[in-house]
Amino acid sequence: MESKSRHSGVLRRLPPSLRYYPYASSSGRRSGFGKDDTRKEEVVRLGVELSLHVAESMFLLSDDIRSMLLFCAKLWRDVEPASPVVERLLLVMHYVYSKDDDINKPKNGGKLVHPELIRTTYMDFVDGIRRLHRLFLAVRNNSSSYFDDRLAIAKYKQVLMKLDDKLRHVSEANGFARKTIESNIFDLWRSLFDEEAGEAKVMMKHRIIIDLFTPLFDQSRPLTSGRSETRIHYFTYSLGMGFAKQELRDEAVQLGVELSLYVAESMFLLCDDIRTMLVFCFILWRNAIRYRNHDSPVVERLLRVIHYVYSKYIKPMNGVYHDGGNSVHWELMRRTTWKDFADGIEGLEDLVLTLRGEGSCVEGTRFKSSIREALRKVEEKLRSVKAVSEANGFAREAMEPNILDMWKSVLDKEAKEATQTLKVINNRILSDLFLPLWNEAI
Question: What is the pTM of this model?
Answer without folding.
Answer: 0.52
